[in-house]
Write a structure and sequence with these properties.
single chain; 6 helices
Length: about 130
């Protein structure tokens, strides 16, 4: 008995090994479109599922992050260095919170109000301008 050719159930393209996505009956582009729409409509549900999965698989998530950093930057140290330089240059909320909580172990980053973060960011940028001007 011959294997019957399977077509994508959305666009009717013949599915081959190169354009088939996993074990679905959709081609890659149709599957990606479907997942894009699914994630838009079920964002909270998806985030909750992923949060639980990450909590269960901490070592796997860590290894995936290390692999990504190594692939992108060559090593984990270079990746961390790049991230630190980027946050310092862009004066992100995380960087400002770190600056505020660095010397006070009782202060928690989540407790810092956004108004204080904005003021501290302006102070940092103003200090940088003064140093560059002088």
């Amino acid at each position: 008995m011959k294997n019957k050719a399977i077509n994508c159930r959305v666009c009717s393209i013949k599915l081959t090994a190169s354009n088939r996505n996993c074990n679905t009956s959709r081609c890659k582009s149709c599957y990606n479109d479907y997942m894009r729409e699914y994630l838009k409509t079920n964002k909270d549900k998806h985030n909750e599922v992923m949060k639980k999965w990450r909590a269960k698989n901490k070592e796997l998530v860590h290894q995936m992050n290390v692999n990504l950093a190594t692939k992108k930057f060559g090593s984990l140290i270079k990746s961390i260095t790049h991230y630190c330089k980027k946050t310092r240059h862009e004066v992100t909320d995380g960087y400002v919170r770190h600056r505020l909580t660095k010397h006070d172990p009782l202060l928690i980053a989540k407790d810092i109000p956004n108004d204080l973060i904005e003021l501290k960011r302006k102070q940092i940028l103003l200090t940088r301008e003064i140093k560059n001007y002088a």
